[in-house]
Structures are given as C-alpha cells and as structure tokens.
Amino acid sequence: MTIQATWQPSQDNTLCNLTNGQARWQADLDDTAGGDPKYPSPHDLLDSALAACTVLTLQLYAKRKGYAVDGIHASVSHEETTGHYAMKREVRVTGNLEPKVLEDLLRVANKCPVHKSLSAEIAIDTTISG
Description:
This protein is α+β, with helices and mostly antiparallel strands. The protein is built from 3 helices and 5 strands.
C-alpha cells in the first residue's frame, strides 16, 4: 500500500492530508514551527507507528497463547540529535501474568514488524517532478 500526502496553499493552513487509498488522516508541523497541536507531527506519526504495532502484535500473540491479559498499553517518546533518533518504548501489560509470560511478551514486542523495520538499515530513494 502506498501513502499519499498532499498540501495546497488554498487550504490556508499547514495541514498535510494523508491517505492510503482507504483511510484518511492528517498531520501538521510541530506547534513550535507554526502547526496546529491538535494534529500529529510527522515524528508523532513515526512514534505512533511503533506504539500501535507493539500493542496490535502483543494483542494477537496474547490471544493466540491464551495469556490472561486485561489490557496492553505502549508509550513511545523520542530524543533527536544530529544523526541520531533514539526512541524509548514503555509497554504495560495488565492481567494475571507470571514473570515468564511478561518476558515472552517483551521478546515478541521487540519483534513487531515496525520495530524490525526501524531497527533495520533504511534506504530512501526519492524522485521529484514538476
């Protein structure tokens, strides 16, 4: 699936409209750059991809294994310096779970598809046209 992002000056704002052909959502600049804080910034979207993938992956795995999970919560933050983007993910799983189950869930969280993508070498091939 390909993500399309568009912006037009006639919008009279800095919102970027996004679609994958089925779902639609929006992003904006950081509020420090003049964006509307009601909308996620591109970095928020990147961090949210990891958080969502973690929760969804653990949800599927816990159901398949029959773990007594009451809820799953993941929070992701980041620190950015020149040439380095460090993400910090905290996962909280509630329920009647033994330490070995939590260890298993941590192992699986570290194998979610977005985690694997972000941990891999990423190459970006960009073209531009007028």
